[in-house]
Structures are given as structure tokens and as C-alpha cells.
Design a protein that fits this description.
Helices cover about 30% and strands about 20% of the residues. It contains 14 helices and 14 strands. The strands form two sheets. Strands 10-9-11-1-12-13-2-14 form an eight-stranded mixed beta sheet, sandwiched between helices.
């Protein structure tokens, strides 16, 4: 364990106080013009503004200065796990999130359906965000056509929209305990206008995996050649079976996750949170509030994930990201009505519409409790967060701060 996790584990104590951590995925942004306003600052958010005036604010770097975090490292950091030490690929997070059991030696891979043009040039990395029904249809075609590759079983699963998961099942492990290695380069270049990359093994144990991935890509393009839009696959986030210290053991918390997207449910499950069912369509806010309210008495820590602040940023839709922020603001009174002892609102990374991708910019952090000091921030925005009393923090600082504000940490030392 890292020093901070080990220290917190030894001073954490069980109390009746409740913590609610709301992660607005990709909430940080950028102005579209010089001296303009970000999406957060543009949004009309009377409830967030009122809460900010009664809270402590600051900024968070999830991994380190200048480093753009993926969603996995961003969330691990917020949960208190050093993302430079506890590394997990997105494939395992997605697989676990949809209920797939991984065995030693297996490799899980996160896939995107994509649109390819002439000479295999990537036109759209997300194939126009197909419906879940279309996704399932494509997955069924691939399952029938690619049940195995050269004797290695291949399992293919729907995740959501353009996302899918492939599990390469190891046929046993060798004398050194090695199955299929997961250390290979991405097929997904994460830009358009170029062809998919060739997967390359980065250590000897991963040579077989790279061969399997490249063969799958080739076969999938043949199977999907008649599709007008979903005619290619891109891979990244390879991972074998990860292991983490228990969230409950570290923090003495009975923790629950409320999320819709499999990756986030998978991450919460891997650290030991109980994943609660959510009614309604994917990322339905009403269903999440219902799940939170109905289970409020059963847990003392809740992780509530809001996705669309991120996906609208990835789509480059500034106005729609503003709208999603405003929808959350309308939801906020329902959360406040539960009277959490500590309420945290934070992002797992920034996703500026201007960049249409994750970025390295710090995200605003808000902590509301009865034990906060006077704060100069008047809104939950990037600019106002710079004025806040919490300053610039590492993501791994967030959980100890929430625990302290909930009076769940004993004194350290004599």
C-alpha cells in the first residue's frame, strides 16, 4: 500500500456520518475564445452557486501537473489509490462492470466501433454513437464469425453505444504463472484522418496477445464490410486481472456505487463498493436519485457518477455540455434534501469541448460540511475554484479530506 493509504487505514474509524461524492465526469472545460467563459461558468446554476458560497473550494490534479488522466486513473485517484502505483486497463474495468468474470491469464480489451473510409482511414472513432440495440446486433455478428482465433477462445460483449469488450481467454498459465500478456500498444490512435495502428507487443509475454488482437481487427473489418457506418474496430485499455486493497478495509466505510456506464461500475466493484441497480435509460438522472434515496439508510459512503458532462465535451458540443451541467444543477436540491454530512462535487478529469478530448487541466473541487473554513469562492467554476481555501490538491488528497470532514479520522501520533 502507499504511505497515505496505509496511514489512513490505521486512523480511520467507523461513525454514523454519511459522505456523498458526486463525480461530474469531465466537468472541467475551456473557453472557446480568449478571455471567454468555460462551460461551467456559462451555465446557469443557481443551486450550485448557493452551495459554493457555503462550501470550501479548490482544484484537483488527478495524476500530476501536465498529465492528462484517463477515466480509470482519475477515479482511482479520487478514491485514494495512487494511479501511478495501481494501474488497471479500461478493458478490465468494462468487463467487470458488465459482470464478466476474469481468470488468471485472461486479457480484457476495451473496444470502440468506428467508421472507416477509403484506405481504412478513420472517419469517426465512435461510429456516430450507435444505439445500444445496434451495438448488440453488431456484437452478435462478430460473436458468430469470431468465436476463437487459432485455438484461443474469444468472448465479445456489448457495453454501450460504440463501446464493446473483448475477452481473450488464456488456455492455462505457464510455469512462471504467465498467461496472455496485456502489455501491447493501442490500435486506437485516438484521432481521425489516419488508419488504425497495428498492435505491437511491448514485452515477450504479450507477443501472442498482439497477434490475436491484430487478427481480430482484420477479421472484424471483413465481417462488417457491408455496414455503412459501423465498419471497423479500435482497441485500447488492455488489462489482465487487477487487485486492489479493499476500500472498506482502508476507510472503514460501507460504500455504494450509483452509476450507469459499465466501466465506472467495474472500477467501483474492483475496489469493493457495492454497485446498486439504477432504473431507466443509461445515465438517467431520476433513476440515480431514486437509487440514492432508497438506499440512503444502508450505506455511509456513496459514489454517484454523472456521465454526460464528459461525452458532450468529447463531441465538441459546448452548448450541450452547458445544458448537462444545468440539468445537474436542477437535480442538486434532491441530493441536498438527504442532508449528507459531507458532500463532495468533483470531476475525474477535464474534457473541454474546445479539445473534444480529456485534458490536463485541474478540475474544480467542492466540499460541503459543517467544519469548513471561510472561503472566497462564489460559484462552482474553474476560475472561482482558484480562489478557494482548499488550494491545488492531488486527487489522492480528496478521500482523506472527506474522511476528516466527516470526523472519521482519529489523531495521527501522540
Amino acid at each position: 500500500m502507499s504511505d497515505l493509504i496505509d496511514t489512513v487505514r490505521h486512523i480511520a474509524k467507523k461513525t454514523d456520518s454519511k459522505i456523498l461524492m458526486v463525480v461530474l465526469d469531465g466537468v472541467g472545460g475551456l473557453p472557446l475564445t480568449v478571455n471567454g467563459e468555460t462551460e461551467l461558468a456559462t451555465a446557469t446554476t443557481p443551486n450550485l452557486d448557493a452551495l459554493a458560497r457555503d462550501s470550501q473550494l479548490g482544484q484537483v490534479e488527478l495524476v500530476g501537473a501536465g498529465i492528462t488522466p484517463g477515466s480509470g486513473p482519475g477515479h482511482l485517484s479520487l478514491f485514494g489509490y495512487d494511479p501511478l502505483k495501481y494501474v488497471v486497463g479500461r478493458g478490465a474495468l468494462s468487463a467487470v462492470g458488465i459482470g464478466v468474470r476474469l481468470r488468471a491469464g485472461d486479457v480484457a480489451v476495451r473496444g470502440n466501433f468506428a467508421s472507416l473510409g477509403k484506405n481504412r482511414i478513420i472517419v469517426d472513432r465512435r461510429a456516430g454513437r450507435p444505439s445500444n440495440e445496434k451495438n448488440a446486433e453488431i456484437v452478435a455478428r462478430l460473436r458468430e464469425a469470431i468465436p476463437e482465433i487459432d485455438g484461443t477462445p474469444v468472448e465479445i460483449y456489448t457495453e454501450s453505444e460504440h463501446r464493446f469488450v473483448v475477452v481473450l481467454r488464456a488456455q492455462g498459465v505457464d510455469e512462471a504463472g504467465q498467461g496472455l500478456g496485456a502489455n501491447i500498444s493501442d490500435v486506437d490512435p485516438q484521432v481521425t484522418g489516419v488508419p488504425p495502428h497495428l498492435a505491437v507487443a511491448e514485452d515477450p509475454t504479450s507477443v501472442r496477445t498482439a497477434e490475436l488482437v491484430n487478427t481480430f481487427v482484420q477479421r472484424a473489418e471483413v465481417v462488417l464490410a457491408d455496414e455503412p457506418q459501423v465498419n471497423g474496430v479500435l482497441f485500447r485499455g488492455y488489462s489482465d486481472v487487477p487487485h486492489f486493497p479493499s476500500f472498506a478495509d482502508i476507510y472503514q466505510l460501507n460504500a455504494a456505487c450509483i452509476a450507469s456506464y459499465p466501466m465506472y461500475k467495474g472500477l467501483a466493484s474492483l475496489v469493493g463498493m457495492e454497485v446498486l441497480p439504477v432504473e431507466g435509460e443509461e445515465d438517467a438522472l431520476e433513476g440515480k436519485v431514486k437509487a440514492l434515496t432508497e438506499n440512503w439508510a444502508r450505506y455511509d459512503f456513496f459514489y454517484l457518477h454523472i456521465k454526460k458532462t464528459d461525452s458532450t465535451g468529447e463531441d465538441g458540443d459546448f452548448a450541450e455540455k452547458v445544458h448537462k451541467i444545468e440539468l445537474f444543477d436542477e437535480l442538486l436540491p434532491s441530493l441536498l434534501a438527504l442532508q449528507p454530512d459531507v458532500l463532495c462535487i468533483v470531476g475525474d478529469h477535464s474534457t473541454p469541448s474546445k479539445l473534444t478530448s480529456h485534458s490536463w487541466h485541474p478540475v474544480p473541487l467542492l466540499i460541503n460540511s459543517r467544519y469548513g473554513r471561510k472561503d472566497l469562492a462564489g460559484r462552482y467554476t474553474e476560475e472561482e475554484a482558484q480562489k478557494g481555501s482548499l488550494g491545488l490538491r492531488r486527487g489522492t488528497d480528496v478521500m482523506p479530506l472527506l474522511m476528516a470532514n466527516a470526523l472519521k479520522l482519529q489523531k495521527y501520533g501522540a
